[in-house]
Design brief:
Low-confidence stretches: 1-25
CATH topology of the largest domain: Dipeptide-binding Protein, domain 3
Strand order of the largest sheet: 8-9-10-1-11-18-12
Number of domains: 3
Number of strands: 20
Mean pLDDT: 93
Structural class: alpha+beta
Strand content: 15-25%
């Protein structure tokens, strides 16, 4: 062989070696699948930069997008776009190595500059907390990104690498700057298992398998995410074959699925919980400033009956607003159901004939829970009337501190007790209506504490203070009841720890 031929062959072999390996378990995607959500799918959820502290948007985000680190099958926090990461001994530097050959859906390479861009433009849940702690982000080389902290922060990876926030999701900088924020929401480009095809705002989102996804090509070729807020309609669609997944069914509809052997009912293990907020408790002029009024609400709630009606007994009653599946959660019993005690407390607070509580705003999607809470309150003399609100408007009103009186919420983003404390218990949290100096100090103290046992003690103390001061009325942990149709062979539910949705790329249909 001539020297020229030898050189050409050598260059070809070198180029072949340099090519990225195909995704593990490369396969052909086939078939169509429909997932019906219990809420209206907001176009804003296609852009992670403003994601609220909720799990529901991740049911859309993780179909299209991917993050450096995130919950993966069998891992609460696993390497995704990053193949590895390291923490410096002093806790001040985190370095991530991206996988080679990663591409966004439009063919652009995934680089460290995209990682830096995505973090710096992030404005969603805990953005202030992240940017207070992170001093600088360096794109060291195309595959290496380094985060520099101002001081050691044990929860950096919890905030960045779980569904506590969407800050770790990586967007294509070049494309985003080309189309702008609104253009991106209309036609998002990500690096996740499915690429965007089309959307009808508030109706459905159509996606198609991305064969280059690093884990493996999805088994499903086409995925449609539907907005179907009515639980009865989701059940009807499931039974007629119009949908394959009916998410978060209400109790009566879940019972109908459970009774029919053609369908599967799955209960999630994610970190979601219901509670009633008292946004006016820090206002001395408000009746809710009186601790006895807030205690009356807690004694009025029949948590056991609500669990049975809404969750078929799957949702354990709660005594604190940190779900029991979270790290550092304080394991405490719920308030007992005692309507006579509730009436006594109302009388002691100056309302022997009951109290007009005005409007009661409930998070959409859970009508049985909302009705049970409203009925329990009215039964003891706390007279309230339901105020209906669309889901996106509810989140916006909560964030902007526009909800008054009493309101029912449910929160399901991951993380640990510290991430929940940051959003709701810390007075400067995005969704906190007030707070206490001692709780704030404990929160800041735990954020600097690298000893796990000491951190746990501090976080337990914070949670106990919220109970002692009756800052909330916890109701129950949520175990979402998911109806799954007969075409599904492997539903991929509960494979990702503390996550409410299937791993979409792992779903298999029957042949």
């Amino acid at each position: 062989m001539s020297q020229v031929a030898t050189l050409v062959l050598s260059l070809v072999l070198t180029a072949l070696v340099a090519l990225p390996a195909p995704p593990a378990g490369a396969q052909t995607s086939a078939g169509e699948l429909t997932v019906s959500f219990h809420v209206t799918l907001a176009p804003a959820w296609l852009d992670p930069s403003t994601a609220p502290p909720q799990i529901t948007p991740f049911g859309v985000l993780y179909a299209i997008h991917d993050a450096l680190v995130r919950p993966l099958p069998g891992q609460k926090m696993g390497p995704s776009l990053a193949e590895s990461w390291t923490e410096s001994p002093d806790g001040l530097t985190y370095e991530f190595k991206l996988r080679r050959g990663l591409k966004f859906h439009n063919g652009d390479p995934v680089t460290s500059d995209d990682v830096r861009f995505s973090f710096e433009r992030y404005q969603g849940a805990a953005a202030k907390e992240l940017k207070t702690h992170v001093r600088q982000v360096d794109a060291v080389d195309p595959l290496t990104v380094r985060f520099h902290l101002r001081e050691p922060w044990p929860d950096f990876m919890t905030f960045y690498g779980t569904t506590a926030t969407a800050a770790g999701i990586v967007l294509p900088r070049k494309y985003y700057e080309q189309v702008g924020a609104e253009g991106f929401r209309q036609k998002p480009v990500g690096a996740g298992p499915f690429k965007f095809v089309a959307q009808r705002a508030g109706v459905d989102i159509t996606l198609e398998a991305f064969p280059g996804y690093w884990r493996h090509a999805p088994h499903i070729k086409r995925l449609t995410l539907n907005s179907v807020p009515d639980s009865t309609t989701r059940l009807t669609m499931l039974k007629s074959g119009q949908t394959d997944y009916a998410l978060f069914l209400d109790g009566p509809e879940a019972e109908a699925v459970k009774r029919d052997s053609r369908y599967t009912l799955a209960d999630t293990r994610h970190a979601s919980i219901f509670w009633i907020e008292f946004p006016e408790q820090w206002d001395p002029k408000s009746p809710w400033h009186d601790k006895r009024m807030r205690q009356a609400v807690n004694f009025a709630l029949d948590r056991k009956a609500t669990n049975e009606a809404a969750c078929l007994g799957f949702c354990p009653p709660a005594g604190v607003i940190v779900p029991r599946v979270m790290d550092f959660a304080l394991q405490v019993p719920p308030h007992p159901y005692d309507p006579e005690k509730a009436k006594q407390l109302l009388a002691e607070a100056g309302y022997p004939r009951g109290f007009d509580g005005g409007e009661f705003t409930a998070i959409p999607g859970f009508p049985t829970v909302a009705d049970a809470a409203l009925n329990s309150l009215n039964a003891v003399g706390i007279r309230v009337r339901m105020r209906p609100m669309e889901r996106a408007a509810f989140y916006a009103a909560w964030r902007d501190k526009k909800l008054r009186g009493l309101f029912l919420t449910a929160v399901g983003n991951s993380g640990n007790a510290a991430t929940r404390a940051e959003s709701f218990m810390y007075s400067k949290g995005a969704y906190a209506h007030g707070g206490y100096p001692d709780i704030d100090e404990l929160f800041l103290q735990q954020g600097r504490e690298r000893n796990v046992a000491k951190r746990e003690a501090l976080l337990h103390r914070i949670q106990q203070l919220t109970i002692d001061r009756v800052m909330y009325a916890p109701i129950m942990d949520l175990r979402g009841l998911i109806g799954i149709g007969p075409r599904v062979a492997d539903p991929a539910m509960n494979t990702v720890p503390v996550y409410a949705f299937p791993a979409y790329e792992d779903i298999k249909l029957k042949e």
